[in-house]
Amino acid sequence: MDRTQKEELVASFNDAFSEATLVVVTSQSGLTVAQSTELRQEMRQAGASFKVTKNRLTRLALEGTKFAYLSDLFKGPTAIAYSDDPVAAARIAVKFAEGNDKFQILGGGLSEQALDVSGVTALAKLPSLDELRGKLVGMIQTPATRIAGVTQAPAGQLARVLAARAEQGEAA
Q1: What is the model's pTM?
Q2: Which end is more exposed in the chain, N or C (fewer Cβ atoms within 10 Å of the end residue's Cβ)?
Q3: Residue 158 has pLDDT above 70, yes or no
Q4: In degrees rounded to 5, what are phi and psi of residue 100?
Q5: Taking the CB of residue 125, how many other CB atoms lie within 10 A of it?
């Protein structure tokens, strides 16, 4: 890799760190190509990215970003998972780490907050942003449905009373 390629890699990582909400730093020593490919595909489907990194270049890319505090984690064979969704990358990484002992989570960051392994695991257990939005819309719609039912009930009762009176008048 020549100097211009390294500069381009650092710039692309810097852009990725600037736009990401979550970064998870992992150790992936001993993963096969098939396992790495599977992990990348799962990340991509969840809207996240996974890249094996060169530690020195990644530390350079971290400088000046909100994730600069992560530079101490880049020792040995490392890789990063990052996403705009604050849960997606953590969820996939934790799920993959549970099924593969050669893949370990070293830590991560959620915006300006550093996360240890237990923090990343706790974050992975949270519902995604879309799930939270769905629950919120459901909670908002439920009272509206009840209000509509309550306001329509007196009108329905009045209609039934009038229909009963009309039936009584016809019977007489």
Answers
A1: 0.71
A2: C
A3: no
A4: -145, 115
A5: 10
